[in-house]
Design a protein that fits this description.
By secondary structure, the protein is of the alpha/beta class. 38% of the residues lie in helices and 15% in strands. Helix 2 crosses helix 3 (102-113) and helix 3 (102-113) packs parallel to helix 6 (188-203).
Amino acid sequence: MNARNAKKTDMDYILIHRETVQPNRAVMLFHGLTGSPYELKKYAKFLYDKGFDVFCYCLPGHGSHRIDIYNVKEKDWRKFANKRYKELRPRYADFFVGGLCLGAVLALNLAVENKDITGLICLSTTLFLDGWTIPFYNFLMPLGLYTILRYYYTFPEREPYGIKNEKVRNAVSKLMSKNTVAMDNYPLSSIYELLLLSKGVQKNIKKIFAPALIVHSLEDDLTSTKSAKFVFNNISSFYKEYMELKDSYHLVLYDNEKEKVYNKTMEFIDALSYKRNINLKELRDRKK
């Protein structure tokens, strides 16, 4: 099977199988705050090779002009995700939604509003900004976030760039200097919108029934395991799994335990398919 890139913007990353081998499974992935679909590229290819059509879209405010992120609102992210989902969902029997950081929060929000999501893949879910690099900035948060000052201040993206593996970190640092992977700072305005989105998810967390895989690192530098555990303990899903990493930072798809994340994703999907097939068999047996 050959991948076909059908780009809607310069940064959208879409992998679709040939029309003659139409799969009945798809995954839509969302990138992190100030990131881009490129941070999901290897993960997307992995899922594509497992038989999924994969859709990675660049979120509003990202990927074009740097000034755009200052104008984006969390409702723009929600509307964008919901529109894409509504467009794609009818084409597939199974449709998974996942994401990293902001992307994971967005996937959860999508599950609040849509009950036909097959499964959620939440990586480094960022409901709370309480990672081990955050305390340095905490004294600025109340002043910056909730006043007009949030449009004038940014937090620089700096070491360790969410990556524990030094070799990978250096490579990402070089790419960031060329502005090909992500922005090199977090505007306070975008952090404000992320936290607004997160509050909405927290408020409606009980309305999430989709099966979920939640992956988080003990050493996440941006958000502690509090976010992941909150999700795991409060969603209403009949099937959910939580995997805690011990040798990674925030960008778990690139760090020391990336293979664990990749493999766990397929374990979750396969287990979910098995459970669903068992339930369908029981339903058919009852009808007999």
